[in-house]
């Protein structure tokens, strides 16, 4: 294709392409939305003019009503719902990328003022383009057809000769092209202004960042729940299954009862873990209609956790553990669970000593087990359990630490009893 052909094709696409047509629809929609405000303007301006018919009145009445309608449009644009409606229409018809426009209602003063500016610009300019689209095409088509139809020529009162015929056809065609060009240019102008007036304000960006931070914190919390629950279950099941396998391989009939107890512990552990897994997955599947709270086990269920942990635990308590607030009690349960999982993974069946003391201001947890003779097998990338323990304590305003100390692996945590999730 030659260069002039490409230029004509590009010009035709710019004036009559799909984007130009959608933007013209956007402008006409703005003109339609202005009509109620324009009618109110005619009621205000009508008594000040000599027009007997509001719709066929003078230009003074038409533009006077238009001038009254614009401030009313600006006031309507201040309502919070004006922005989401405008954003939906601009995304669909103006071809503005969605990420450049704000989501949700306009809550701040700056956002409402900018939305009012967009609403006024859209409806005001749209009314002018709509009026031109209604009035100009019939007149332009009449000029084009006047050399062929004498009735049209007589109605318009134009002379009949060759030069006038060419001039009228050219004038009518030029009017239609000019209307298309003005409509496309106006639509492009609105598309450029949409991100400026409908884009997110600094307050919107801050609110979006806070939402993302909240969502990330929730995802991390759920990841810790899954890690602690499933990780502990797998560690306990692995240990119990290994012990049962060794007993079966030994062929000693007297140890059948031990195998039965091991299998029962595996069954109970997996059943409990599946229930906890269902709870977490159910929370993930919520579509925003839940309260986002995961009611996990608390210290009231500690005895059951220790009995099926797969390791001998000596428990020392001080204070009333059942009186600890639920948020703190849930985190304390998970910290103990992770401590047991860590002991199972790295120290096998070595006994664990657990101290839990509920004071007036804080809950103290301390776990100890012998350090194994051989170094523990490290997983690729390292484990997440002890990091999760520290995160749980930090969320409550407390602190946690873990590490070897004089031949003993010690995990300790202090949780303020006034801490909240």
Automatic annotation (TrEMBL):
Record key words, sorted: ATP-binding, Kinase, Membrane, Nucleotide-binding, Phosphoprotein, Transferase, Transmembrane, Transmembrane helix, Two-component regulatory system
Gene Ontology molecular function, alphabetical: kinase activity
SUPFAM superfamilies: ATPase domain of HSP90 chaperone/DNA topoisomerase II/histidine kinase
Superkingdom per UniProt: Bacteria
Domain (Signal transduction histidine kinase subgroup 3 dimerisation and phosphoacceptor) ranges: 218-287
Its EC number(s): 2.7.13.3
TM ranges: 21-39, 59-79, 116-144, 164-191
Catalysed reaction equations from the record: ATP + protein L-histidine = ADP + protein N-phospho-L-histidine
Enzyme class: transferase
This protein's name: histidine kinase
Top-level taxonomy: Bacteria, Bacillati, Actinomycetota, Actinomycetes, Kitasatosporales
């Amino acid at each position: 294709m030659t260069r002039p052909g490409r230029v004509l094709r590009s010009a035709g696409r710019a004036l009559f392409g799909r984007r130009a047509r959608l933007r013209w629809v956007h402008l006409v929609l703005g003109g339609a939305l202005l009509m109620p405000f324009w009618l109110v303007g005619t009621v205000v301006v009508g008594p000040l003019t000599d027009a007997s018919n509001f719709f066929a009145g003078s230009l003074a009445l038409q533009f006077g009503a238009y001038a009254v309608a614009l401030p009313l449009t600006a006031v309507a644009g201040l309502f919070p719902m004006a922005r989401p409606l405008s954003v939906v229409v601009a995304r669909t018809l103006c071809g503005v990328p969605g990420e450049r426009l704000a989501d949700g209602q306009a809550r701040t003063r700056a956002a409402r003022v900018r939305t009012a500016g967009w609403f006024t610009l859209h409806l005001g300019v749209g009314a002018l383009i709509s009026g031109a689209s209604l009035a100009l095409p019939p007149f332009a088509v009449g000029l084009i057809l006047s050399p062929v139809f004498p009735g049209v020529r007589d109605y318009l009162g134009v002379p009949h000769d060759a030069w006038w015929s060419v001039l009228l056809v050219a004038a009518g065609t030029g009017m239609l092209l000019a209307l298309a060009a003005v409509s496309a240019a106006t639509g492009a102008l609105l598309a450029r202004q949409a991100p400026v007036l409908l884009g997110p304000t600094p307050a919107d960006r801050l609110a979006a960042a806070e939402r993302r931070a909240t969502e990330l914190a929730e995802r991390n919390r759920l990841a810790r729940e899954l890690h602690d629950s499933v990780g502990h279950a797998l560690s306990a099941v692995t240990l119990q299954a290994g012990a049962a396998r060794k007993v079966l391989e030994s062929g000693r009939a007297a140890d059948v009862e031990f195998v039965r107890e091991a299998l029962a512990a595996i069954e109970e552990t997996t059943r409990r873990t599946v229930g906890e897994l269902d709870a977490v997955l159910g929370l993930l599947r919520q579509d925003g209609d839940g309260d986002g709270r995961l009611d996990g086990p608390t210290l009231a269920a500690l005895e059951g956790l220790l009995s099926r942990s797969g390791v001998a635990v000596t428990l020392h308590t001080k204070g009333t553990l059942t009186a600890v607030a639920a948020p703190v009690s849930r985190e304390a349960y998970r910290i103990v669970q992770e401590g047991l999982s860590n002991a199972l993974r790295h120290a096998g069946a070595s006994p664990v000593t657990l101290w839990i003391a509920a004071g007036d201001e804080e809950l103290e947890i301390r776990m100890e087990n012998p350090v194994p003779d051989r170094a523990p097998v490290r997983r690729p990338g390292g484990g997440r359990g002890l990091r999760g323990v520290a995160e749980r304590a930090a969320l409550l305003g407390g602190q946690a630490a873990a590490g070897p100390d004089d031949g003993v692996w010690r995990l300790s945590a202090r949780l303020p009893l006034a801490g909240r999730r």
